[in-house]
Specification:
Layout lengths: L8 H4 L2 H9 L6 E2 L12 E6 L4 E6 L4 E7 L5 E6 L5 E6 L4 E6 L4 E7 L4 E6 L5 E6 L4 E6 L4 E7 L4 E6 L5 E6 L3 E6 L4 E7 L6 E4 L5 E5 L4 E6 L4 E7 L4 E9 L2 E9 L4 E6 L6 E7 L4 E6 L5 E6 L4 E6 L4 E7 L4 E6 L2
Antiparallel strand pairs: 1-28, 2-3, 2-29, 3-4, 5-6, 6-7, 7-8, 9-10, 10-11, 11-12, 13-14, 14-15, 15-16, 17-18, 18-19, 19-20, 21-22, 22-23, 23-24, 25-26, 26-27, 27-28
Length: 338
């Protein structure tokens, strides 16, 4: 299936120039356990609080809530942090806009309308562009991250939900509500293939092995796509309504895939190093686990809970909860600085 990128009328005037540009590219804390922390990581953790219209900022090393940021929009749902940690891009599901937050000043510095129900955002490998999935418009908007302007849109199949890029940046993977993952050539901006997956394939992420990992939230399994063949390389059942995935170590073992499973109120740990996927363990967490992210060295994961409205800090070496941090209402997504 080939679908070409489309642009609004003003952009068509300078199409060659545009295509060239595209191609280049609170302070309360509830500690449960006092544990030693690695020094000097300076990890900042952010939660998108969908029902509070805010982003909570936390210190991921000292386990403290630092404050909240007003997105100046409604229904913050997904986030992408720039490589240098200076900008946080936040989709707002309720009004179809993307908020750009300066993380030093903790202020929203730009608001960009992309389409109906802006669902997820992903930054290209070079950070030059932000790709936003507009779930009700069946499009991906491409934004220049320097001038905050939409450069164009790519039509995809029904209800785009997740976005991830291949390690070399040549392909983008977009999961859609018609049980497909659309493979997009990022140079031609065309859908070159559709890979059948399961119901409600909500989330996609690039794994440390270079493969694309996804969740079938409408079912009970996760899957892995091999970018060399653009085929499903493996899948495993983890429990009802798997949400998101992060990668971390358990001692020297790993990397492992840490999967939030809402139907179990657990994080399920999957061996990510073997071709045959297997479950290592299950970790009890709070109510409605959804967002999850690991710190830069893979020793800690941060888990957001949409029902208990907190973020739990889990030591991956012991699989114990080290702290619980109160955040806003319905923290749907969690990201942390590298």
């Amino acid at each position: 299936m080939n679908q070409r990128i489309t642009f609004s009328t003003p952009l068509l005037i300078s199409m060659p120039l545009l295509l060239g540009a595209l191609l280049t590219g609170c302070e309360t804390m509830q500690k449960l356990v006092s544990t030693p922390k690695p020094q000097g990581l300076n990890t900042r953790v952010y939660s998108a609080n969908e029902s509070s219209n805010t982003v909570t900022v936390m210190d991921g090393d000292t386990y403290q809530v630092l404050g909240e940021i007003d997105t100046l929009n409604y229904g913050p749902h997904d986030m992408a942090l720039s490589r240098d940690g200076k900008q946080l891009w936040v989709t707002n599901l309720a009004n179809g806009r993307v908020s750009v937050i300066d993380t030093d000043s903790r202020k929203t510095i730009a608001s960009i309308y992309t389409g109906t129900r802006a669902h997820v955002v992903a930054l290209t490998n070079n950070n030059k562009h932000a790709w936003v999935a507009n779930i009700a418009d069946n499009t991906i908007s491409i934004i220049d991250t320097t001038i905050y302007r939409i450069l164009g849109t790519i039509p995809v199949s029904k209800g785009p939900m997740g976005i991830a890029f291949s390690r070399d940046g040549k392909f983008a993977y977009v999961s859609t509500q018609d049980k497909m993952v659309n493979v997009i050539d990022t140079a031609a901006h065309q859908v070159i293939k559709q890979i059948p997956v399961g119901p409600n394939p909500h989330f996609l992420i690039l794994g440390p092995d270079g493969r694309i990992w996804g969740t079938n939230t409408g079912s009970n399994d996760i899957y892995v796509i091999d970018p060399n063949t653009q085929e499903i390389a493996g899948s495993i059942e983890v429990g009802p309504a798997p949400q998101q995935i992060a990668f971390a170590l358990k001692g020297t073992a790993g990397p492992n895939a840490y999967v939030t499973v809402t139907g179990l109120n657990k994080v399920v740990v999957v061996n990510a190093t073997s071709p045959a996927l297997s479950i290592r363990e299950q970790i009890d967490v709070g109510e409605g686990p959804n967002g999850i992210w690991a710190n830069a060295v893979g020793t800690t994961v941060y888990v957001g809970h949409t029902k208990s409205n907190n973020v739990m800090v889990i030591d991956t070496g012991t699989s114990q909860v080290s702290a619980t941090l109160p955040v806003g209402k319905k923290p749907i997504r969690v990201v942390a600085s590298r």
